[in-house]
Amino acid sequence: MSSDASPAPPPVTLREVASAAGVSVATASKALNGQGRMTAETRERIRETARRLGFRPNSLAQSLLRKRSFTVGLLTNDTYGRFSLPLMAGVSDALVDAGVSVFLCNVEDDPRLGQLHVDAMLDKRVDGIIATGKRIDRHLPIDLSNLRIPVIYAFTQPDAGAIGFESDDAGGARLAVEHFCALGRRRIAHVSGPASFAVVHERARAYREVLAEHGLPAAEPLLGAWSEGWGHEAVAKLFDGKGRAETPDAVFCGNDQIARGVIDALRERGIGVPEEIGVIGFDNWEIVAEATRPPLTSVDMNLATLGREAGLALLSLVGGQAALPGIRKLPCRLVVRQSCGRPVGG
Amino acid sequence: MSSDASPAPPPVTLREVASAAGVSVATASKALNGQGRMTAETRERIRETARRLGFRPNSLAQSLLRKRSFTVGLLTNDTYGRFSLPLMAGVSDALVDAGVSVFLCNVEDDPRLGQLHVDAMLDKRVDGIIATGKRIDRHLPIDLSNLRIPVIYAFTQPDAGAIGFESDDAGGARLAVEHFCALGRRRIAHVSGPASFAVVHERARAYREVLAEHGLPAAEPLLGAWSEGWGHEAVAKLFDGKGRAETPDAVFCGNDQIARGVIDALRERGIGVPEEIGVIGFDNWEIVAEATRPPLTSVDMNLATLGREAGLALLSLVGGQAALPGIRKLPCRLVVRQSCGRPVGG
DNA sequence: CTGAAAGCGCTTACAG
DNA sequence: CTGAAAGCGCTTACAG
């Protein structure tokens, strides 16, 4: 009752269960936890009593004893972004079945706020921390390197000697370029984000490698912003004053917004997608990818899976399992829609 | 140390602080909490000792005594959506300074998952719950009506007798239509989402009211999907085979994606925005609103503020303040960009 | 002005 | 097979 002032009855305690069942709290505890030895009859009677009274153990008390709170902290600076969302859902999914709850800590880019949250997490005796962010080559504004609890990094820069989960961006780029090659495209351009992002270089490297492997020419990647506007500009650079033979027949874009801009610009020039030019995006941001005309084929970073894996890894560290430090790169997948022509299986 | 197996020292306890300072734990506790009476000197010595040892009280133990855990649960089924994100950030912001941490519970639309999360929250003795979702006229798949802790609803349908926070959608619609009127637009159309959404009717009602107040004709709102595609279709319905006098000079759209579709369709027909037609969207989803050509004027629901208010309201209930049940509607605001011409202050 | 005691709700050796 | 005792880390009356 959210607004009713009537004093709700306090939760049933183990003591009440025990006295209702006519046993000691020790015995009641053991009966409910499947510990100790007693007649099946006694155990069942106690359990039934607990059920009847709606007993639920106070996990604060349990945590105090067990030195394990069954909570973890999730630190992020990507509160308005779309990356942390699927990631958080994945983390949450992986943990809920283990009875572990997740504290959401929005640290923005503010060290003071970060410290505030980290202190709160430590005070609340979380079993571990997952740090996540909006880009893989920047560290959160907090030092997590000397905590006494396990830390897992996911989609943010890890500390030296820590465990981090990332998407395999180079692999994702390969998927895209290989797809173009398999479709018979020969003049494949790459339009990406700012040079200040590590992933821009990683994807560009993979782009060059795949083309080299296929004996195809690689143009210098066009670097700009992560925006539709840059997609438009890039098309101008690619096509203005060029003869047919010099223009690309495929464009691999650094994200879906760039791809959207590219597709719109091509349409406005009367250039057919996918007939004349194939386009692939990155991120598989469904709301964008499905709204482009035609719908956009895009590389998906499998962020929910990344979150799941990070959650499970943390659980295993908390459980005392050892794990090697280092970066784990998880594969991307290509989601084929209609912007490349001849869709595989479509 | 995320992967290092070296056994980290356990946290410093109050007992250790007390013995280091040569006092009893009771005195140490009182010194640190500003309770009891003792010489300022003793108090300061104890505090200094605590500081030196890096003592941080175990909030699990504190919670057990105080019957207050300084945690709340945030239930949502909008994990992939964009509504819950600013809202969650607002909630988190409002609570962090009060030392209250937020459990993130992704219940999707699964009653089993919902119950699992609610039980976990109750077991962990959260002080209260905030329920949020992706639309205002649907209830989460869980019954929150008979909990013993306060519940606040935000951007999801509340239970009878509960407290809910919503954006004032009718007010937001008024803002948009009044803006058109003030700019001298006379034939204002409304293109919105599916009739199954309550907000669609609320906004349409406000649309009609404002036009009536200005003595302007209201066309029947065009209802469809929340998508760009529907924006395109709607333009066809509005303009195909119509003479100039029958077509609108302004379109108020139910969300930014529809508005984007409308703007793109108009451009493709060679109709100038904002010269010939003004367009306003809803949601102020920045990444969309800023990418339309021209940038889109849009109604912002102030979701972060909604989250803040919800958080503060919960805090006040937890603190024992009474509050009247009912819906609190928070005002929207119009973010003026360039899709209506003559931008105010621009 | 300071400390011994009881207790929050539970679990876990240890006796009987 | 069951229970009394001690204890997790803290706080709060209550004595002295």
Secondary structure layout:
The structure is a homodimer of 346-residue chains.
Chain A: H1 14-21, H2 25-33, H3 40-53, H4 59-66, E1 71-76, H5 84-96, E2 101-106, H6 111-123, E3 128-132, E4 151-154, E5 163-167, H7 169-182, E6 188-192, H8 198-213, E7 222-223, H9 228-239, E8 250-253, H10 256-268, E9 278-282, H11 286-289, E10 297-300, H12 303-318, E11 326-330, E12 333-335
Parallel strand pairs in A: 1-2, 1-3, 3-4, 4-5, 5-11, 6-7, 6-8, 8-9, 9-10
Antiparallel strand pairs in A: 10-12
Helix pairs in contact in A: 1-2, 1-3, 2-3, 5-12, 7-8, 9-10
Chain A binds a DNA duplex (16 and 16 nucleotides) through residues 13-15, 23-27, 29-30, 33, 35-39, 42, 57-67.
With helices defined by DSSP (H or I, 4 residues minimum), what is the helix count of chain A?
Answer: 12
Oligomer: homodimer
The major sheet of chain A is characterized as: 6 strands, parallel
Basic shape of chain A = elongated
Q: Specify the CATH homologous superfamily of the largest domain in chain A.
A: Response regulator
Strand content of chain A: 15-25%
Measured between the Cα atoms of the first and last residue of chain A, the distance is: 53 Å
CATH architecture descriptor text of the largest domain in chain A: 3-Layer(aba) Sandwich
The most extensive contact between chains is:
A-B, 76 and 77 residues
From the alpha-carbon coordinates, what is the Rg of chain A to the nearest angstrom? 27 Å
By helix and strand content of chain A, what is the structural category? alpha/beta
User: Biggest sheet of chain A: strands side by side, in what order?
Assistant: 2-1-3-4-5-11
The number of distinct structural domains of chain A comes to 3
Percentage of residues assigned to helices of chain A: 40-55%
According to CATH, what is the class of the largest domain in chain A? Answer: Alpha Beta
